[in-house]
Every structure is written in structure tokens, then in C-alpha cells.
Amino acid sequence: MTLTQLAIFGAIGLGYAAIVPGRMRGWLLMAVSVFAVFWLQPAVPIRRVDFILPTLTLGLAIMVWSLTRQAKFTKTDAAALVVTAVIVVAIALTRYLIPALRPTPSRPPALVYVLAGLGVFALVWGAIDWIGRTQGMPRRIRLVILGQVVIVAMFIILKTDALAELAAEWARGVTNQSTGLAKASDWQWLGFSYIAFRLIHMLRDVQAGRLPK
Questions:
Q1: Under a CB-based contact definition with an 8 Å cutoff, are residues 147 and 67 in contact?
Q2: Quick one: pLDDT at residue 24?
């Protein structure tokens, strides 16, 4: 995080406390948090990955929230998902701005790919949410276990140099970049270790019955 970013967040914090009405504070905090996930993401030498990784962070958080929430899906929940999607799309549209005005280190992917990705995510999330709500606790627990396996597998790949390098080679091949330059350090994912452990902890709480079923 740079001094400029710290100063901007400080100014937002002062304005948040002094100006923003109470009923809007939660929404503003959420919007700024979603934006910050992209803005603080370090540059990655693989094209588009510094947009994809923050998007995956949001996707993982939403999936785990869906599996751990105790209340019924509400209009407020729907609005929060829509706001998140709109912010992601808005950030993708900054590809048409000059680099100095983009919140991401590199140019975001084309909008059609972002919309397609969001569409696929919506289908997967909808299926997981439906299974979790309607198919009984045993199937929900299976999804919880699967979620832990996926997150742990991602963690192992990123933290094992040989596997991370192989993943970097694959990603570079997909983006038509030189695979010979692939390195484990190509993967710079903002806060992934902390996020992964927090999400796994929440899923473990569901599996152990420490969260409402």
C-alpha cells in the first residue's frame, strides 16, 4: 500500500464518519471494500491476472457466505450481490481509460469475458445455494467439505514453488506469453493466505456444528 492510497483511505474514513448518513454507511463500506480488493492488488506479470485474482477473492467469499449463512436470502442480500457485480463491471470498463486512471495495475479483460465469467459464477453459485438450502444437511456438509478441499488445493498450489511455476506456465500459455519466463513468484494474490484460512475456519465451523444449521 502506497502513501497515496493511505491518504485516500484516510480521507474516505473522515468523510465516512462526518458526512455519510447512518443508513448508507454499510453500503459505502461494502463498495469501498470491493473496490479496494482490486486497487490494492499487486501487479502480476501474467496478463489480466491482477483483475482475475481479486474477482476470485470476491467469488470465494460469496460462495462461503452462501454455505454458512443462517438466514433466508433477502432483498438486501440480492442488492449486495448486484452492487458487487456492478462494481466489478465498472472496474472492467476502466480498460478504456488511460493507465493512470485505472484502479488495476494492468488493463482489465474485455467486458464480454467479464460478463461471461460473472454469468458462469452466478449459475454455479445458484446451484450451490439451492443444494445447500433444499437438499438437507448431509449434502450441504458435502459442499462444505468440497469447499475446504478447493481452497486448500489452491493454497498448496500457490505455496509450492514447483506447482506455482507449473500454474504460471499454464496461465502464460493461455495468454500467449512466454512460458519460459514463468516463475512461482508470478502469483501475487492480495491477502490470499489470510482469506483462505478465514474461509476454511468458517467452513469448519459449519461442519462441526458450531454455526447454525
A1: yes
A2: 74
